[in-house]
Amino acid sequence: MSGGGSFEFDLIVLGAGPAGEKGAVQAAYFGKRVAVVEREREPGGAAVHTGTLPSKTLRESALYLSGYRARELYGVAVALEASATVPLLSSRRRTIAAAESASFRRNFERHGVTCFEGEGRFVGPHEIAVRSSAGERRLTGEVVLVATGSRPYRPVAIDFADEAIHDSDEILTLGALPRSLAVLGGGVVGCEYACMFAALGVEVTLVDARAEILPFLDLEIVGRLKGAMERLGIRFVQGISWESVLRRAGQIVATLADGRELASEQLLFAAGRVGRTERLGLETIGLAPDARGFLPVDERYRTAVPHVLAAGDVIGFPALASVSMEQGRVAVCRAFGFPYKQAVAETMPYGIYTIPEVSAFGETEESCRRKGIDYVVGRALYADNPRGKIAGDLEGITKLVVEAGSRRLLGVHVVGERASELVHVGQAVVHLGGTVDVFIDMVFNYPTLADSYKYAAYQCLAALARRERGGE
User: Fold this and answer.
1) In the prediction, which pLDDT does 33 show?
2) How many angstroms separate the Cα of 348 from the Cα of each of 247, 317, 321?
3) Reported pTM
């Protein structure tokens, strides 16, 4: 699309979270007139204020204050004060959120993006009304990018007005740490919060309707994570759905489909999110979200109205801040014909901030079997790694999945300290089409956790050698 002189802006972005910020700045970098509309006082979206960064801050507090990282090293047990609260434990999140919001603002200013505080809604195909305490302002734009994010799904059958029942946004503001917590939902968010609270000494029960938590991960990795979570004290109830959640005799009671009742002091519902599209006036332009509030888009991130784009959590899966940023960039590059970002990588890394951390990229053993790929695997345990021993992380593992014929690296899966950082070593090799021999030839710093790649690679070569000798 070319710049339209009849419009005040070339691009209007609704929402200043990761997708909105990167999309706005990308367009402004190439000389487009850009406006961003954000209903909150500070930019950053859920990633900065209620989800990604705040929850990771609480995780670090849990690890530090519970003495979790020192237990294997020194046998240290740290008792938290009974008056400890989540806001106190995650007090650093306000500092981090403020610093990150300031980074967003500086980025907008540096690129000449005009920011409007208020709630934006469509009043015409190219016209947005921005309503704030100061009144209403009308903006016109050739292209509109909807990047309004998502919010926790709240089933009508659960009374979220009860002070002991929380969604994943509210949980960070609860008062004193509860003695017990039921978590409904074994996805990424549910598993992360279950680990955080268990590390802080809370009795946690995790309920998930699926047969297995985190089914997109390699099943061996899931098994190792579950073992670590059970050692944290987390109780699993799997393969059964919940029927009702009610307050009874001072407790929150979740009734399961088989009639069992789980009583806890507090409850976290962490099963899904919905798109923030309900007050955007989409009906004005003939655009309708799906049943969960998400906007369907094509490969160019265009909605059913071609000049209206959507990116980030508002379009649904995978709803990762890292991917949302790339979606925002690609959406505006494709819309305006910039010779730059044209597609989001088909495969993305997963970083799951449980205790221990998990990260994965590429093929799993299960996906290889489904696709008929002949493969071998190699593993290196942190317990055999000098840096792992020094750090006291004896549960970690680096696992490689390698194509048998070509020796190409297909996937990397890491459990343990710094997993979300370490995975990128393998990701780069997969992207470049490299073989497992790359790790054999590389020299790694010593002692490092990254050195585990070399020993996992040796295991892969041993498996390949056995194949050649007819041993497998």
Assistant:
1) 97
2) 41, 12, 11
3) 0.90
